[in-house]
Amino acid sequence: MKQTFTFILLCLFYTNLSADSNPCPNTSIVPLSSTRGNPYDLSDHLVYFTQTPSVHSVTEVSNLFQTLPLQNSKGVIPNFGNTDKQYWFCFVVHNDENDYKRTITYIKYPLLDDVIFFALRESGEILENRQGRRFPFENRDRDYRGFSFATDLLPSETVTYFVGVKTDSSMSVPLMIAEEKNFYSFTSWDTLLQGIYFGIVGVMSIYNLFVYFMVRDKAYIFYVLYLCISAILFQLSLQGLLPVLFFPNSPELVYNSHNLLYFLFLLTCFPMSITFMNLKENAPYIRICFLGLMVISIICICLLPFLSYRFMNQAGDIFSFLLAFFALFVSYYVAFIKKFPPARFYFYGYFMVIIGGLATVLKYMGVLPVNAFTENSFQVGMAFEVLLMAFGLGDRISVVRKEKDRIQLKAEINKQKLIAYQKELVLAQKLQESTLPQVLPKIPGLKIKAGYIPQSLVGGDFYDVTEVSKNQIVCLMADVTGHGVPAAIEAAMLKIAHTHTLAFANGPGKILETINRSLVGIYKNQLLTAAAAHINLDAMELTVANAGHPAFYKFREDGSEIQIIRPKGKLIGFSKDVTYEEETHPLIASDRLLLFTDGLWDMWEKDKNGNKFTNDGSGEDVFLEWLSDHKHTSFETLFEKIETHIRRRMQTTSADDDITFLLIEIS
């Protein structure tokens, strides 16, 4: 009984359809002979309506085509941008030939989620097929990356087609019809062109990966990553090849992976662009902007599971649209304003991608029509970019090699300069050694020891001990500002002036005055501190003069106080007409004198780790305290302790100045 009732209803429905003389109103019939053996664009013969909520039964669709206002595509391939509406299309095909024909109706655009085909035959038979990106690939009548529906047309038969489409991506419906043999010719060419594209990209990826392992330039690995994500995986999704080649039975994986690959494609643009154009040096502020945009891409990827597919797809279109113009501006700036040659290939290559990408995005937005250019421009642009980028990376190798050669040449020049400087240092060291006493005078009643530790190979400190008579000596301690070769040369000049002075000067003050008159104006920007001492063992007197130099210390092994002796006096080289006052102090047996340069204080101003003491005492205060604790030792032991302390400090910290000291004892 149930089967009988169903049969009656179907008969009534078929009768109703047969009674309707025009199930697809306002459209012209497509004679099959008009295709002339080629795939035929149906946009001249399409009428359509949009419906929310979606409908899926042929009865509802047929009734709506009779009751709703219809639109005619008028020869323009339907393109509605990003929309959540369902669209139903209708067209009629008539086999005006005397032969049986097998036809394939197909949609070239592969990003439609739900595609429903209905074919209403004159016999009342209804053929139906439902396929799309969210359905298994096996639902499609033919192994084609778009959507296909096969129909057999009898001689003189007329068939009415209803096609419903809905998607969460941009809506584009390039409906075509072809005889089966012609459809296979079309798909063969389509497969060949896709193979050429992916072959080019694949070969260039392997080539650049090989180059990376040769030169170890990270620009290549970022470019390979960019090619793998954007030019291969994203294009596989964009061209509808993921279900064809890899996931025929995983429609949800194919659907959800598209936006992920979209944002991964945008993400890989940034490290590739930063390294390819060397933005760290050529445009550091733009590099920061790129890093910020890179973070936005990462955030979008993290939001994919929580926001709708449609919203994120629209966000990707807008982001890529803005990024295209920004990257074009940056590449022009780096290539032609900063004059970085490899960026020119980036600019031209990216310009090709931008033309194709913008055409594709504007097509997806519904701004541009669907045609051969907007359908293939992005893929063609990517192919050109891959080739131009390869030239750019080759040019980058040339630039890197030239830069490497320049650096090596500069390094060789610096090496030669260093060798020459080292030779100068050796000469300066020999010069300085000649200025310092090789042997100290041996006078009965005097013990003399000298310590000299330059900061570098040569220094600016100078000392001299000269025997002027059997029981008299003159000591000079000086410190030229600065270090190294210039200071050593000036110390040599001081030695000459001092030797000349001893011939006629009869006291430390006169010695300093004569040296000052000899050197003022010669030292230019350098100044000199000095102290002179005259020791007379016959009169047991010490006469001293000072030119801005640290004080003398006078003490005894068994004494309780350290006498600080420092007459006033200006630095040598400051002014020509300068007089230096002299002070005379009595000497007795066991008196000790310590003459030094201020580098000595630095070794007591720091702790054993090289850090400055936190108390308010200066290096002089700390040294005086240390000297008070150790002055009761023997002459030789005291000298050894001073030298040992300096050596130990220099193991943990570098000296800030040259260190020179003279220790004298009256025996």
From TrEMBL:
Keywords on record: Hydrolase, Membrane, Signal, Transmembrane, Transmembrane helix
Sequence ranges assigned to domain PPM-type phosphatase in this UniProt record: 443-666
A GO molecular-function annotation: phosphatase activity
Gene3D superfamilies per the UniProt record, alphabetical: 2.60.40.2380, PPM-type phosphatase domain
Leader sequence residues: 1-19
Transmembrane annotation, as ranges: 195-215, 222-248, 260-279, 291-312, 318-335, 347-365, 377-394
Keyword Lyase in annotation: no
Record-given protein name: Serine/threonine protein phosphatase
